[in-house]
Each structure stands twice: as C-alpha cells, then as structure tokens.
Specification:
Distance between the termini of chain A: 38 Å
CATH superfamily of chain A: Beta-grasp domain
Radius of gyration of chain B: 15 Å
Number of domains of chain B: 1
Oligomer: heterodimer
Helix content of chain B: 25-40%
Structural class of chain A: alpha+beta
Number of helices of chain B: 3
Largest sheet of chain A: 5 strands, mixed
Shape of chain A: globular
CATH architecture of chain B: Alpha-Beta Complex
Radius of gyration of chain A: 12 Å
Number of helices of chain A: 2
Largest interface: A-B, 23 and 32 residues
Strand order of the largest sheet of chain A: 2-1-5-3-4
Distance between the termini of chain B: 25 Å
Structural class of chain B: alpha+beta
Number of domains of chain A: 1
Number of strands of chain B: 9
CATH superfamily of chain B: Molybdopterin biosynthesis MoaE subunit
C-alpha cells in the first residue's frame, strides 16, 4: 500500500522535497515509516529534534497503524506567533 | 475566522468578525516582527505552514477556549511567507460578556499557537538563517 508524506520547514529542506509517495507494508506504524524514511533520506535525522506526528491532519501517537492513502506529516518543532 | 494568509492581516476584519451584541469586551493580540533575537540582528521572518492542518488546529483551539471561558466569538489569523520587521505575523480577537474571559482566552490562543499549530518560523538574520522552535507543547485532544 502507499501513503503520502509531506515535509515542512527544516525537514523539507533536509529531504530536498516537499512531498513524496511511499510504498509501505501492511501494518506499518508512523514510527516504522519514520525509520524507513531516515534510511531513504539520511539528512532527515536531525540531532536532538523532537517531532510530533500527524495523519490526515490530526495529531497521532507514533504507534498509529497506517492505512492506504493516508497523508502523513512529521511535524518539526512549531514556532508560530 | 481561523485562517492563515500570505497577505497582510486586516485588524478591523478580525474585530468585525467577533463583534457581538452580547459582548461587553473585545480583547486583541497582535504579534509583530522584532528586529533582534538572542543577540542576532533579524532582517525578516519567513513563515511556512501545513495549511489544512493549521486551520483545523486553530479552529480546535477556538473550541477549547469556548469550553474553558465564557466567550462569545474568537478570530485568529496568522500570516505566512516573508514578514518584514514591525509587520504583524498574527492577530487574535476575542469577544466576551466580560473582560476577564476575553483576556484569558486571548492569552490562551497565542500560547497554544506557539505549541501545537503547524506553523514554522525561519529567522533571516545577518549572516544566516535558522528555523526556530523547541517543540515544548502537547497537542490538544491528542488521539
């Protein structure tokens, strides 16, 4: 199955892309996807970064199991205001 | 009104949006762009957002504020893209029957924006640029 991953801010710059489609195995969690992406894009591993996780525009915990066509965002530290 | 925009924010539009015959107070907050941060001379800020989620999270914090305080209406608009020194980056307006609730909800909104709304600020300063943020907050109503 496939999921859409969007990158923002520091992660967008480090991935060198704003959006990708990624083939993953059934039962994969958000944390599994993040581990795979760090292999695909080694620069994504920002030392000391604290991420939040969003699936389909809602915050989730990293153990969330992904479904086909989910939109996943790894949220780097926010800094609005 | 809970939105992000790449155009200058219209203050009067927010005030009009929260104007309510039951309100005895409108509290407002304007976040502006400062020319220095942690000893760095800042030239401009550049904001990026995950728009669909940011607007959803802004609306969610508005709902949360309504549960916590007796307010009439809330409006929040955040600017995205390059924002020059002195220009507003965010405006909040809250109407309530009484000022205490309006002030409290207004304060709550700006603090929550800084914690959980997917908006990122890049500081452009003399000699470089840096993404700001420490991820200090937990999302509201985390599923």
């Amino acid at each position: 199955m496939k999921v859409k991953v969007k990158f923002f801010a520091i992660l967008r710059e480090r991935a060198g892309t704003a959006e990708i489609t990624k083939e993953i195995q059934e039962g994969s969690t958000v944390a599994d996807l993040w581990a795979t992406l760090q292999q695909d894009y080694p620069k994504l591993a920002v030392p000391g970064i604290r991420l939040l996780y969003a699936v389909n525009q809602d915050y989730v915990t990293p153990d969330r199991v992904l479904k086909n066509a989910d939109e996943v965002v790894f949220v780097p530290p926010v800094s609005g205001g | 009104m809970f939105s992000v925009t790449d155009k200058p924010i219209n203050f009067q539009e927010l005030v009009d949006c929260v104007t309510d015959p039951e309100a005895g107070a409108i509290a407002t907050f304007i976040g502006t762009t400062r020319n220095n941060n942690q000893g760095r001379k800042v030239i401009a800020l550049d904001y990026e957002t995950y728009r669909e989620m940011a607007e959803k999270e802004l609306a969610r914090l508005g709902e949360e504020a309504k549960k916590k305080w007796q307010i009439c209406r809330m409006a929040v608009v955040h600017r995205i893209g390059p924002v020059q020194i002195t220009e507003p980056s965010v405006m909040i307006a809250v109407s309530a029957a009484h000022r205490e609730a309006a002030f409290a909800a207004c304060r709550f909104a700006i603090e929550e924006i800084k914690k959980t709304v997917p908006i990122w600020k890049k500081e452009v300063y003399e000699g470089g640029e840096i993404w700001i943020g420490t991820q200090s907050g937990q999302p509201l109503n985390r599923s």
